[in-house]
């Protein structure tokens, strides 16, 4: 786990083998802390005490320890009690007590222990903790009161008596996430702002990686700064060796002062010994540039996991392995612990990537465009420190204004969504997502099996709801980042196009329409336009209340004489008759840029062949793009991000998850449990298997099923489950022969439909498997005979009779649980739009009323729902209600793996659900619930 100051520690059960560690730990605790724990002087533990505190049954008595470098720094224990406070095997209360070494108090150790011991207790049926604390032990009282649980507090006989329920509350979850945020942000800050750095693996050969990093570090650490140190380490260096003016030590243990950060550039076989020495010397973080780990195969992955375990046990975080490195451009503490030869200029871009090659490209692109960087990380295999950690840091970093990410995989998509959504509310996040297709995940990435096959549509939904701007290329990444960093966010999508080229203006206008913007007719100033012409036209456009953004378009100001050929070529930038731009136009744009910023309207330039103009505009923060399509795409991303920001602010005030009637969660849960019980074996958890892993109240029972296979409920059971949530499926009656079909129709009432429901015929009206508008017995008998002959028999086709639905628009509603992301709610129009064109919209669950309203309007075929070409609009209110009910169902019942409603016929008044399929599965593991814990991939 991560502690408040960014350090790492391990929480594990206390066993009889820990007797010596416990005694050593207790000897390091002050007399005051011992007094607070036992309410009396207690200088040492007796043999009986040691046995008591190291022997647990892990059901009624559980003890946990926080360990750093194989030494205890804190312990916690609970003992189950009955209503009278006596030891019990069946009570639902427990007494809990902590002891934290004085040197580690204030690091958030007790708070983390409370989260873990509470999760363990819940798994074992304990619902409430009790604790007695001396009033002067304010730190421990604060641990309990700040935890966010529902509490009861009393004072008697000089002791504060606390009772608190262990059921997580919104407050307790908020507290845990706030602590997680602070700890992760602090851990990255420690990596980026070290006072001393050691490079392990420095060689006499100036071409080696270690030597290159040493030179780069020296370039970042300013000469004469007595507070900062760079050290070099080479195990084989003769005494007195210096490289690049830095004394070389044979071991990090020989370095006289503290070392905050170590860059490891030794061969993979030497890394374990190097990490051991780093831990012994108190190093806080490692940048491991050494390759030969998970990217090489299973054996390398095992070495990578061992590296992370070893580092965390010593309280260190790891960048890498196979990392390109870290950069911080803070003028007070610049750091270039990377393979980049030059420290980038200071600026507002925080950059994270996983690939070293992409890292080089990102830094080069920033340099070429004149854009500054606040901090940069290229983390290679991402075994420990991840993009989520950097997002936590950038949320607090005032120097970072825009976040640029190149991602190839997600370690924890749920957590990414939560963190990114909070960060994007204040700072733009722009992402290029590589490895878009299943199976193309780069080797070496530490990714859980559940996250390796994220569908691209799922990733899009994740980004969309988190307010993350997704782009396709590195070029577009910077195009978009530049406008978001340098220009105000647009208040709408109305665009004015002004310039000196009619053709370029038309191209820009068309690009705006393609991007979903609303451009005005371009204003053509002609190629003879002067700077004054530009100034007047831009002022008019900016002052127009119907304009939200302005795109200036420009080509070289070619005069009449410039059209003549001279010596067989067209006059160009090298000719005295014409230059690559007109300084007056640049001046007009700079003045307009100031006014645009005052008015809160972005101004960008799309140009052709103006090589000097972008650099002239750079001081004024006006982005210049050498193609209209690039300018429009960047502006469109800014428009959409601004819309998301406004929508999020509005949603915080107005969006809600409505209260719905006809919800029977208990009845639905009973149906699911009954279905699972026929397919699953139920067993208790092993005593120690889940002691320090988070679990909710629903994970007390562990169901096992081969491969975690999903169970498809029979149609009747699916309809019954859906009915518990007010989702009514039109009843169907089997029709294996004519007489049964006639009786079914009589029971349902005419008119009816006759259709095939066999899996290979379901939802395939193109195969002639449906007969509609059957108003009487003769027509029904005739239709039954036709389908019996056409489909190879009524039994094989699984014919059913269903009451005819009112005419309307056929839609499809679905909800699928992605193990890595959670439940995804989907909507589309049935048939070709969804199946052939992929016209389906998605939202993460739980969905609000505004989410579902946006969902049905997002699909491109949505005009069919709202009266397209004079047709009567359908009942979208009823449609939104069904979407909310499906969202509530899968959110309440995590065992529901998927729900498919197809078709859902939406009529002008009401709707009919004609088909439903529900699949359930054993409870999935949630990586984002329970106590804070670091990934163990």
* Individual helix count: 27
**Strands ordered across the widest β-sheet:** 1-2-3-4-5-7-6
Structural class: alpha/beta
How would a crystallographer describe the biggest sheet?
A: 7 strands, mixed
Number of strands: 42
Low-confidence runs: 447-453, 560-579, 681-707
Provide an overview of this structure.
A hairpin with a 2-residue loop joins strand 10 and strand 11. The protein is α/β, with parallel strands linked by helices. It contains 27 helices and 42 strands. It is 35% helix and 22% strand. Helix 6 crosses helix 11 and helix 20 (665-677) runs antiparallel to helix 21 (715-723).
Comma- or semicolon-separated keywords:
937 residues; 7-stranded mixed sheet; alpha/beta
Secondary structure: elements and pairs:
Blueprint: E1 10-13, H1 19-27, H2 31-38, H3 47-54, E2 61-68, E3 71-81, E4 93-100, H4 109-123, E5 128-133, H5 138-145, E6 151-156, E7 159-165, H6 170-192, E8 196-200, H7 209-220, E9 229-233, E10 242-243, E11 246-249, E12 261-264, H8 271-281, E13 285-288, H9 298-313, E14 317-319, E15 325-328, E16 335-338, E17 346-353, H10 356-369, E18 373-378, H11 387-396, E19 402-407, H12 413-424, E20 429-433, H13 456-466, E21 469-471, H14 474-486, E22 494-499, H15 502-514, E23 518-519, E24 523-524, H16 531-543, E25 549-554, E26 565-566, E27 569-570, H17 583-599, E28 603-607, H18 613-617, E29 624-625, H19 628-654, H20 665-677, E30 681-683, E31 702-704, E32 711-712, H21 715-723, E33 732-734, H22 738-748, E34 752-756, E35 770-774, H23 777-790, H24 794-797, E36 799-803, E37 809-818, E38 822-829, H25 832-835, E39 840-844, H26 849-858, H27 876-892, E40 896-906, E41 911-913, E42 916-920
Parallel strand pairs: 4-5, 8-9, 8-12, 9-11, 12-13, 13-14, 17-18, 17-19, 19-20, 20-21, 22-23, 22-24, 22-25, 25-28, 28-29
Antiparallel strand pairs: 1-2, 2-3, 3-4, 5-7, 6-7, 10-11, 15-16, 15-18, 26-27, 30-31, 32-42, 33-36, 34-35, 34-36, 37-38, 37-40, 38-39, 40-41, 40-42
């Amino acid at each position: 786990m991560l502690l408040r100051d960014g350090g790492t520690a391990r929480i594990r059960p206390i066993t009889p083998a820990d007797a010596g560690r416990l005694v050593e730990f207790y000897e390091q605790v002050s007399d005051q802390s011992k007094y607070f724990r036992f309410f009396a002087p207690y200088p040492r533990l007796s043999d009986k005490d040691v046995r008591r505190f190291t022997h647990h049954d892990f059901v009624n008595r559980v003890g946990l320890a926080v360990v750093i470098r194989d030494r205890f720094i804190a312990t916690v224990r609970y003992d189950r009690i009955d209503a009278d406070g006596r030891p019990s095997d069946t009570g639902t209360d427990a007494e809990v007590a902590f002891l934290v070494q004085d040197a580690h108090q204030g690091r958030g150790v007790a708070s983390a222990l409370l989260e873990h011991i509470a999760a363990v207790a819940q798994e074992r049926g304990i619902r409430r903790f009790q604790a007695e604390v001396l009033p002067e032990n304010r730190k421990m009282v604060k641990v309990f009161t700040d935890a966010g649980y529902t509490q009861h507090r009393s004072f008697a006989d000089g002791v504060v008596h606390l009772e608190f329920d262990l059921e997580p509350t919104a407050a307790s979850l908020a507290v845990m996430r706030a602590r997680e945020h602070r700890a992760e942000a602090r851990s990255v800050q420690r990596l980026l702002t070290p006072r001393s750095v050691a490079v392990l693996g420095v060689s006499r050969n100036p071409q080696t990686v270690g030597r290159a990093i040493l030179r780069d570090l020296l370039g970042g650490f300013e000469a004469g700064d007595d507070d900062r140190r760079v050290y070099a380490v080479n195990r084989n260096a003769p005494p007195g060796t210096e490289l690049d003016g830095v004394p070389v030590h044979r071991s990090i243990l020989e370095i006289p002062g503290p070392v905050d950060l170590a860059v490891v550039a030794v061969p993979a076989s030497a890394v374990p010994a190097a990490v051991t020495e780093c831990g012994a010397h108190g190093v806080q973080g490692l940048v491991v540039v050494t390759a030969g780990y998970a990217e090489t195969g299973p054996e390398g992955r095992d070495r990578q996991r061992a590296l992370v375990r070893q580092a965390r046990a010593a309280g260190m975080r790891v960048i890498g392995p196979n990392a390109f490195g870290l950069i911080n451009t803070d003028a007070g503490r610049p750091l270039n612990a990377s393979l980049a030869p030059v420290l980038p200029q200071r600026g507002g871009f925080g950059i994270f990537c996983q690939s070293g090659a992409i890292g080089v490209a990102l830094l080069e692109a920033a340099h070429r465009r004149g854009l500054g960087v606040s901090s940069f990380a290229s983390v290679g295999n991402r075994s420990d420190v991840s993009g989520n950690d950097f997002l936590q840091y950038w949320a607090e970093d005032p120097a970072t204004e825009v976040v640029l990410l190149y991602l190839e995989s997600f370690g924890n998509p749920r957590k990414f969504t939560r963190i990114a959504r909070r960060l994007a509310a204040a700072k733009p996040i722009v992402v290029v997502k590589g490895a878009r297709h299943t199976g193309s995940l780069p080797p070496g990435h530490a990714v859980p099996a559940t996250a390796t096959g994220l569908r691209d549509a799922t990733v899009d939904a994740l980004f969309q709801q988190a307010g993350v701007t997704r782009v396709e290329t590195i070029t577009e990444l910077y195009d978009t980042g530049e406008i978001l960093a340098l220009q105000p966010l647009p208040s709408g999508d109305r665009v004015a196009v002004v310039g000196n080229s009619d053709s370029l203006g038309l191209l820009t206008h068309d690009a705006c329409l393609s991007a979903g913007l609303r451009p005005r007719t371009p204003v053509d100033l002609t190629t003879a336009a002067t700077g004054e012409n530009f100034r007047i036209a831009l002022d008019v456009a900016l002052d127009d209340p119907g304009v939200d953004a302005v795109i200036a378009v420009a080509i070289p100001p070619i005069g009449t004489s410039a059209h003549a050929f001279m010596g067989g070529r067209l006059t160009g930038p090298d000719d005295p008759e014409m230059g690559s731009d007109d300084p007056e136009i640049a001046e007009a744009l700079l003045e307009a840029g100031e006014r645009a910023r005052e008015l809160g309207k972005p101004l960008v330039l799309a140009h052709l062949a103006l090589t000097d103009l972008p650099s002239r505009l750079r001081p004024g923060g006006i982005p210049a793009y050498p193609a209209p399509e690039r300018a429009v795409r960047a502006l469109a991303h800014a428009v959409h991000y601004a819309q998301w920001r406004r929508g999020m602010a509005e949603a915080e005030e107005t969006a809600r998850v409505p209260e719905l009637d006809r919800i029977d969660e208990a009845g639905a849960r009973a149906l699911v449990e009954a279905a699972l019980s026929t397919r699953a074996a139920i067993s208790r958890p092993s005593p120690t298997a889940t002691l320090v892993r988070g679990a909710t109240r629903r994970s007390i029972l562990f169901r096992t099923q081969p491969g975690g296979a999903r169970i498809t409920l029979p149609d009747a059971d699916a309809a019954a489950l859906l009915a518990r949530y007010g989702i009514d499926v039109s009843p169907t009656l089997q029709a294996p022969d004519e007489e049964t079909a006639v009786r079914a129709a009589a029971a349902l009432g005419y008119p009816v439909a006759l259709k095939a429901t066999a899996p290979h015929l379901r939802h395939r009206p193109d195969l002639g498997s449906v007969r509609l508008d059957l108003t009487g017995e003769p027509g029904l008998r005739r239709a039954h005979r036709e389908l019996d002959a056409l489909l190879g028999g009524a039994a094989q086709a699984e014919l059913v009779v269903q009451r005819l639905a009112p005419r309307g628009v056929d839609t499809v509603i679905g909800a699928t649980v992605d193990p890595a992301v959670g439940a995804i709610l989907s909507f589309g129009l049935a048939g070709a739009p969804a199946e052939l064109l992929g016209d389906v919209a998605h939202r993460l669950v739980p969905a609000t009323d505004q989410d579902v309203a946006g969902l049905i309007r997002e699909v491109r075929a949505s005009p069919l729902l709202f009266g397209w070409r004079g047709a009567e609009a359908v009942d979208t209110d009823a449609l939104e209600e069904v979407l909310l009910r499906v969202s509530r169902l899968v959110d309440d019942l995590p065992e529901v793996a998927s729900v498919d409603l197809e078709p859902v016929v939406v009529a002008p008044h009401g709707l009919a659900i004609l088909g439903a399929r529900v699949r359930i599965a054993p409870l999935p593991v949630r990586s984002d619930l329970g106590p804070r814990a670091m990934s163990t991939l």
